[in-house]
Amino acid sequence: MGLTITKEIISKFDVPGPRYTSYPTAPEWSQAVTPAIYRTKLKDFEKTQKTLSLYVHIPFCEQLCYYCGCNVAIRPNDVKHGDEYLKFLFKEIDLIRDVIGKKREVRQLHWGGGTPTYLTEDQMSELFDKIAENFKIDFDGEVAIEVDPRTINASKLQILRQLGFNRLSMGIQDFNPAVQKTVNRIQDFKLVSEITQLLRELKFHSINYDLIYGLPHQTRKSFEQTIDQTIALHPDRIALYSFAYVPWLKKHQTKMPADTFPSNNEKLEIFLQAREQLIEAGYLSIAMDHFALQTDEMAKAFVEGKLYRNFMGYTVKPADEYIGFGVSSIGFLENTYIQNHKTLPEYYKALDQNELPIERGKVLSSDDEMRRWVISHLMCRLEIDKKQFTDRFHLNFDEYFTSEEIHIANCLRDRLLYVDQDKLKASELGKIFIRNICMGFDQYLQKAKSQHRFSKTI
Ligand SMILES: C[S@@+](CC[C@H](N)C(=O)[O-])C[C@H]1O[C@@H](n2cnc3c(N)ncnc32)[C@H](O)[C@@H]1O
Ligand code: SF4
User: Is the CB–ligand 1 distance for residue 64 below 6 Å?
Assistant: First the structure.
């Protein structure tokens, strides 16, 4: 293996920590951000020419995967659930459109879940049309959807492509039958292979597979095979997620017997082996847990330092602002995080009262903005360019982050970071433990440590 990671290193760095899809992280958000505040932010946005990224959350799945950490609502396959949901989603779109006025340009549209393909073909078409009526979708931008291979067929895929989706992400997780059985997700390799073939015929620009390491019954050997099978199908991108075990938030995770999980040490070995296999097969390791073929635009963007990160993962087409639609969805507008209600009854109730269905959020202070910049650069570019920081904020990096001097010195001593002229760059070890580097710039974390719980960094 290229990297030697000892048990000492693991016990030192594999500590609970956030994934930094946002900064400040979600536990810091509060009900201080109300529907009225969101309305003001939307009005501020209305006066600008800024572009948008839209996220649409469809929470439904027919069957619960026991590892799942997403916001889901398990429902049988019955058209009435989607119909009811769309009614409220359309109302939310109308409410927002009323405030922001004219049709705004959307550079990135992403449907996530849950399982967007839980919806019928008609429902998906209706939803897409509703969005296209209210926003100017850039079809050369990212029009992406998350798909559960167990819920699609050729006809549904054709509709998606006709509607304008050009990128597609599939939940795979693991091909091993014992793992699949324990996590309550039986999904045949043949099915995935056939769907991938169909996607190629339909000329989707980019196909992503989600895999998870750290699941029950996984071993280095079993996951080696899953990765070999993955490589054989040649997806353009792979998200290799660390299993987030958060049973205090997701009680259903306790349905998986604790003694079936790989140890921390094994989990890291599984990851390192998978990483090496993917790199050997020609994938570029992109930032933390993503891999892409060198031909994929994400790999190119990473090499050129043009990769960005938001709640939907990494993106090459960043918009100025983000609006989230649907239960639990998150937006970022005018320096403010906004999150919708997380349960369907609350989400429906707010919309019934013609209110924007906001549960909480966070208005960023200027300090938050600077730390967000630093953390996002670490996560996307694996480096901090002090000169760029100064250009952006008109402040000297070393003078501003004096309280972080010791953390930076520790990272240099532990060889997570090294100095290259005006830059602090992550080493190979630092790339694996990038979240640990970020954690030192997270000024809420010390306070949060005693109050909030996160999954392990690896
Ligand atoms: C919304 S799902 C993808 C679409 C569809 N629902 C499916 O599962 O096929 C998003 C992805 O989150 C990842 N995920 C879910 N729960 C997770 C957990 N507890 N830890 C790490 N990754 C998780 C899985 O890889 C999953 O594919
Ligand atoms: S992993 Fe996907 S299909 Fe499984 S429960 Fe979660 S959102 Fe639904």
Answer: no
